[in-house]
Design a protein that fits this description.
Layout: H1 5-15, E1 28-34, E2 39-43, H2 56-66, E3 72-79, H3 89-97, E4 102-106, E5 112-116, H4 117-120
Parallel strand pairs: 3-4
Antiparallel strand pairs: 1-2, 1-3, 4-5
Length: about 130
């Protein structure tokens, strides 16, 4: 699946064009990939009540969940309005819930970077930590 990293990042950037970001003007797109290869896209959707804003990663993951997916392999995150684009802490925790192993991002200078979720969320808390 590593050969598809560039394609997934490009797809995330393309879908970011559909983001609803009238306040920050920071358009983000995400692609969540299930173990079977099915792909689910999402964009950030801002809200005048800022706390109600939805991140692109959360949008893609919840779309996958609505389709019955409970495990994801990869999430790719791209944006149009900055060189660097990484998921927020809340989205990293959501990725943890769905077992994401690989996170593809726009690193410094817009270059493709591939991380494990463990790198982005070390010593994390997950479902197996509950009684």
């Amino acid at each position: 699946m590593s050969d598809d990293a560039g394609r997934l990042l490009d797809q995330a950037r393309r879908i970011a064009d559909h983001a609803y970001a009238p306040y920050s003007r920071f358009r983000v797109g995400a692609v969540a990939v299930a173990g079977n290869g099915d792909e689910y896209v999402g964009v950030n959707v801002e809200n005048a009540a800022f706390g109600a804003t939805i991140c692109a990663e959360a949008n893609a993951i919840t779309t996958a969940a609505a389709a019955g997916i409970r495990r994801l392999h990869t999430v790719a995150v791209g944006c149009l309005d900055a060189d660097e684009c990484y998921p927020c802490g809340n989205c990293r925790q959501l990725m943890r819930e769905f077992g994401v192993e690989r996170v593809i991002v726009q690193g410094e200078g817009g270059r493709l970077r591939i991380h494990t979720l463990e790198e982005l969320l070390p010593e994390s808390f997950g479902p197996e930590d509950l009684p």
